[in-house]
Amino acid sequence: MRQTIRALGWTIKILWIITLVFPLTVGLSLMELVNSKAIGFQEPTASFSEGQFHFSAPFHINNTGFYDFSDINLTVLAEAKNKPIARFSQTFPKVSAHSVLDASYEISFSLEEILSRNSELLFNDLDVNLNVSLFFRIAYLIGFGIASNLTMPWGAPFYNFSLTSIRYNSISQNVSVLLSFENHAQFPVNGTLLIEVVSDKNELLGSYSELVNVSSDNAFQKLFEIPVEEPSKITETGFVRVFFESIQIFEWEGRLID
Amino acid sequence: MTEDGFKGFLKKYFLKILKATILTSAIGFFLLLIWWFFILGFFADNPEIQTLFAVLVWSTLFFTFTVRATEGTIYKYGFLVGRALFIIVYLIYATNGGVFSLDFADFRFWVEFVPLLALMVFINILDMARSVLQALEFTSETPKE
């Protein structure tokens, strides 16, 4: 029995040493990572084309520590005025000890998604709350997480959007529409703008499409002359619908004829 | 009680209790230093961590004293088993099952160390088993009165 007790004693001592030394070496690994500035970011890029918003932030991790990093995950939860907008989550491949990971954090979402969740983002400048959380595991055993709330100003791509001077000209058989907006977003508004004139019976009277390219912090204003194909179908009141990249972004309702 | 009996009692118990008190005081002083310089320094605004540390301090002092004071009796092993059991429960409760989180300024940090916690629980189970064996050995070697 004495031998068993002694063996158990030694086992307990060795296991305690492992339990205490292991977190210390993990801590040293983390210190090594922080002190050597092993994590670096490059200039992020944002673009908007074909109704898709795309954000890319390249970065690198040089793991100079003793252990592998695994389960690296970055999650961003975006909300504006307490309404959730989007959730982005990306998991990166493991970074073995003494190796470098070159990766990029990619965010991609469509205009349709924004509209369905919060249409205000298209027309009003807002403060977007971002809940950013990063998680990774060291030596496949100990997981570390860090989360924070950030506020990011969002510039609306169709700020101050308006349709004015909407009138039917019986001589030229055109409906004139003055469309204007300012692009407050960080990316250019580049795509096909489609304007449809619809009678109060919901019949399409005429449409016009044009490729627009409005760079950041620029205004757009244009008078569109939309030909009415069948003037007999014109009604006193009607609708003007505006589509951007085949997604309806605005609808006006009012008098077409004075 | 005769004079010799009283002296025997003093020799047997008073010295044990004195030794236990000195050792407990020394450990208490060391834990007080940790309280002053570490806990109050870094977690002054976190009463939860302060309470958890206080529970750890008082239980450490209690078990140090009782184990020392009951040296040479079967009760010592009872307290050793109790200590290991307490550590298991305390570790699971204090670490929230191996996920420890902390709010600091605008950030929230958390550490997941479930495998390490499992190892610590296993060590304490081994410690309990050893204490039970030591108790059996003690009873087998102690002559019946």
Mean pLDDT over the full residue set of chain A: 88
The number of distinct structural domains of chain A comes to 2
Q: What is the second-level CATH architecture of the largest domain in chain A? A: Sandwich
Q: Mind summarizing the main beta sheet of chain A?
A: 4 strands, antiparallel
Kindly state the number of beta strands of chain A.
Answer: 15
Radius of gyration of chain A: 29 Å
Keywords:
heterodimer, A: Immunoglobulin-like, Immunoglobulin-like, four-stranded antiparallel beta sheet, 3 helices, 15 strands, B: 145 residues, mainly alpha, two-stranded antiparallel ribbon
Description:
- The complex is a heterodimer of chains A (258) and B (145).
- Chain A is an alpha+beta fold.
- Helices cover 17% and strands 58% of the residues of chain A.
- Chain A contains 3 helices and 15 strands.
- In chain A, strand 7 (126-138) and strand 8 form a beta hairpin.
- Chain A is rod-shaped, with a radius of gyration of 29 Å.
- The model of chain A has no long low-confidence stretch (mean pLDDT 88).
- Chain B has helices spanning 3-42, 47-69, 75-94, 114-141; strands at 99-104, 107-112.
- Chain B contains 4 helices and 2 strands, in the order H-H-H-E-E-H.
- Chain B has one domain (3-141).
- Helix content of chain B is 77%, strand content 8%.
- Classes of the chains: A alpha+beta (258), B mainly alpha (145).
- Chain A binds chain B through residues 1-2, 4-5, 8-9, 11-12, 15-16, 18-19, 22-23, 137, 141-149, and chain B through 106-113, 115-116, 119-120, 122-123, 126-127, 129-130, 133-134, 136-137, 140.
- Strand 8 of chain A pairs antiparallel with strand 2 (107-112) of chain B, so a sheet runs across the interface.
